[in-house]
Amino acid sequence: MVTPAGRNAFREFLRTEFSEENMLFWMACEELKKEANKNIIEEKARIIYEDYISILSPKEVSLDSRVREVINRNMVEPSQHIFDDAQLQIYTLMHRDSYPRFMNSAVYKDLLQSLSEKSIEA
């Protein structure tokens, strides 16, 4: 999650597991946290909500009802931290479920191979 290459490889793996929306949601939340303009925060929060929180979204992430209710209440006046609990829940899900499988995948082994080849060349 720290490096762009690592995120891209993990995202590629998640795509094969039909759970790429988890990474996309996590990245969207990270971008929202960097925003300071209230109008842009509101717009980005609405987009994130429609894309990942709404039960009508095809990319809906799996959240418990408590977190979903808190988000629904806070959408009246969203801040850049409105999705923090949801982001943590999705990060934990990826960390416990998807990431261990990723570590054993061909995608991860290919990433390690390419990184070791680059370090040898340097």
Automatic annotation (TrEMBL):
<dbReference type="InterPro" id="IPR016137">
    <property type="entry name" value="RGS"/>
</dbReference>
<dbReference type="InterPro" id="IPR024066">
    <property type="entry name" value="RGS_subdom1/3"/>
</dbReference>
<dbReference type="InterPro" id="IPR044926">
    <property type="entry name" value="RGS_subdomain_2"/>
</dbReference>
<dbReference type="GO" id="GO:0009968">
    <property type="term" value="P:negative regulation of signal transduction"/>
</dbReference>
<keyword id="KW-0734">Signal transduction inhibitor</keyword>
<protein>
    <submittedName>
        <fullName>RGS20 isoform 7</fullName>
    </submittedName>
</protein>
<dbReference type="Pfam" id="PF00615">
    <property type="entry name" value="RGS"/>
</dbReference>
<dbReference type="GO" id="GO:0003924">
    <property type="term" value="F:GTPase activity"/>
</dbReference>
<dbReference type="InterPro" id="IPR036305">
    <property type="entry name" value="RGS_sf"/>
</dbReference>
<feature type="domain" description="RGS">
    <location>
        <begin position="1"/>
        <end position="112"/>
    </location>
</feature>
